[in-house]
Amino acid sequence: MVYIKKLFNSKILVALIFIFSALSGILFTACSGNDAKEPENGVSEQGDKRIFSFAEHVGTISNPGMGYTTTDWYHTAVGATPVRDKQGDIVLFFIDLSPFSAGANSDGVDYDLDERFFISLRATFENCRKNGSTVAVRFRYDENGRDNPEPNSFEQILKHISQIKQSKVLEDYKDILMFVESGFVGKWGEQHGGKYTSVDYKARLLKAMLDCVPSPIPVTVRTPDTFAKFVGIERNKLADYKAEEGSEASRVGLYNDGYMGSDSDLGTYADREIETQWLSNQTLTSCFGGEFSGNIEFAKKYDAYLPENCIPEMYKTHLTYINSNIFQLYKEYKFDKNYDVGGIDNSAYYGQTVFDFIRDHLGYRFVLGETVFPKKLLQGGILEFDFSLVNKGFANPIKKQKCEIILEKDGNFVTAEVGLDPAKWYSGKKISQTLKIKLPAFLQEGEWKVYLKSSLGVDELKNYNYRSIRFANKDVWNETLGANYLGFVEIQSSGSCDNTIGETDGKTEFAQLYNLGGRVCVDGTVSADEWSESDKIAESGKYSLYAKCDGENLYIAADIPHGSKSPVFNFKAKNAENGLSYWLYQQAGGFIYFNHEERLGHGGLIIKYSDFAFEIKIPFRMLEIENGSQLSEVSVFVQDSADEWKGKGSIKTETAYTAVSDFRVFNSFINLTADDKSELKFKIEADTEIESVVWYLDGIEIASGNLLSLTLKDNAKDRRITAKITALNGTAKTVEIAQINVKG
């Protein structure tokens, strides 16, 4: 299915059908001039194919829902729960419910979760959605190691769970919700040291959580005995248990907060061999992760932690995430062939540390092997190609992804959804795929690059790169599209006027042509697709400073090589109208300081940096500016917190910067051929909320209002389509949409 967007501010989808004449006919009729026969499948050189091979990248790949967690100890209060704003590939919220529990609060009274709690939790998840993060959750009544922190009755716990379900906060954010730890009872929500931590209570709790958390989101338990009790088998029989596909049992995983701490992982396992064998099947559809034990000296009394033991087990149990406290002593071990597992070619990591190997193989790690493409293809033809990859990571993605094939030329691109399922691309397996994509006839002649995009919770082009899977290959990643390069095909002219796109065995739809040029992808790199010389506001030696705005945010970028071991990137601005200065910085680990935090908060802020650059998206409200406001000074500077906070580079403006609101319309001009029966569909995509669209044919208004889509049918003659688009803030622009050339 072709890419479809949720309309920016429409309550409902409005489709306008404009009839040129009273004629009706077959849709998507192919036009072949003079009845000339086109080559089969539109391939102009049958059997002429090319093979592309791709080298593996050695290093950490940032991907959604896996790897290091950004852990947030989320404090709540009766009637006063705050809103949080965290960023990460997976943000794990430990939500403290102690103020609502008689066993933990100062007044010894149980309270129901209140309206403010759910309003703030919903706003917190919305911040994560907007900044491109995924989330996971553990609700708990203790964060200090207190005995018996739970409410007076187990029924009150069940009531809290019921309130969470009825609020629909998990349901409404299931697109970015990766898993929920069953939590609640015991010290730290780790299900020991509490009033309700017997296996019977934990099994009842698991049942309630599976009902509360929307399917198929995983729910994880602290120890395998809870699962055994839930499914009604003896714990020592777990090795032979395989959950039925799609069952509630298949959703259950494990959070191991004593990971590698002893031969039993500090009491996690009763029989390590039996229960890791259970996990080897169970965590193909659920999550396994947790925390390395903090006491390495105690762990060294056992041999579970040794690389020759832990690496095979990480593959066996499909380790997806950890809270970044990997044992530092793994830096003393070099990864080599002695640590290879199950025929997986990890030779790219020979000579790297075991620490680096573990860090970079958490979760899934897709390495593209080769792709096979035809050399040439006629417009409107069928692109058939093959690709193969290997998942060298410990685990597979758990959530079903949205997969798209993208064809791009000179920044213009079309996209079609395809039926691939990376959740089935299992660890250690080679995956081979063949795709057949019907292409639109309006593609320009020349070479078109082909990309594969796999993503979670992405439905708007303005956030198109968010939560997208990156392959672990050199030079395949397109940061703007959030997609992986597979190869290219040369498109040649044809007489077709079939402008649909899609898999040949699925639904095809009228293709849209877009271009994201000028859109800032906040990822810590400064590319020519995002920033131009006209955006530069300061230059000093090898340093450059850039700025631009959309309708709601100021974007800042700085080319500032620094060489810091632990960089702290600082941004400062002075509002010329109120005279106030605004200073914020982000340290390694994600801590953000903002000097007006209590008054303005920092929801919507995104900061990313690399060894060479810094990018930031900062909402206007954080600087108390609007369209036309001036900043008398803007500066960026870097410090190294590992080197006594010494300055490592700085740049600032010499003149005032004026914030000018602008928005980008992502539609590219389409020059297409149609016959008089073709149905043509156009949709507006922009990076702002749209107030209204006025559609024109040859300069004559044909429709206006909140109409982000237009359908034309029965084409009588050549026409040109334009649209005037007005944003909610009143900014307006007119764009060329398409030239329709009617072929008789």
Describe the 3D structure.
The protein has 744 residues and is of the alpha+beta class. Helices cover 13% and strands 33% of the residues. The protein has a nine-stranded parallel beta sheet, covered by helices on one side. Helix 4 crosses helix 5.
Flag low-confidence runs.
1-41
Strand content: 25-35%
Q: What does the largest sheet look like? A: 9 strands, parallel
Mean pLDDT reading = 91
SS class? alpha+beta
Task: List the main descriptive attributes of the protein structure presented here.
13% helix; 33% strand; disordered N terminus; 11 helices; 744 residues; seven-stranded mixed sheet
Topology at a glance:
Blueprint: E1 17-19, E2 49-53, E3 67-68, E4 70-74, E5 91-96, H1 115-130, E6 135-140, H2 154-167, H3 169-172, E7 177-184, H4 199-212, E8 219-221, H5 224-231, E9 252-259, H6 272-282, E10 288-292, H7 296-299, H8 307-317, E11 321-322, H9 354-361, E12 366-374, E13 376-378, E14 382-391, E15 402-409, E16 412-418, E17 430-438, E18 446-455, E19 477-478, E20 483-492, E21 500-503, E22 509-510, E23 514-515, E24 536-540, E25 543-549, E26 553-559, E27 567-575, E28 581-586, E29 592-594, H10 597-600, E30 606-609, E31 613-619, H11 620-623, E32 630-640, E33 646-652, E34 657-658, E35 670-674, E36 680-683, E37 690-697, E38 700-705, E39 709-713, E40 719-727, E41 732-742
Parallel strand pairs: 1-39, 3-11, 4-5, 5-6, 6-7, 7-8, 8-9, 9-10, 10-11, 13-20, 35-41
Antiparallel strand pairs: 2-12, 12-14, 14-17, 15-16, 15-18, 16-23, 17-21, 18-20, 19-20, 21-22, 24-25, 25-26, 26-31, 27-28, 27-32, 28-29, 30-31, 32-33, 32-34, 36-39, 37-38, 37-40, 40-41
Helix pairs in contact: 2-4, 4-5, 6-8
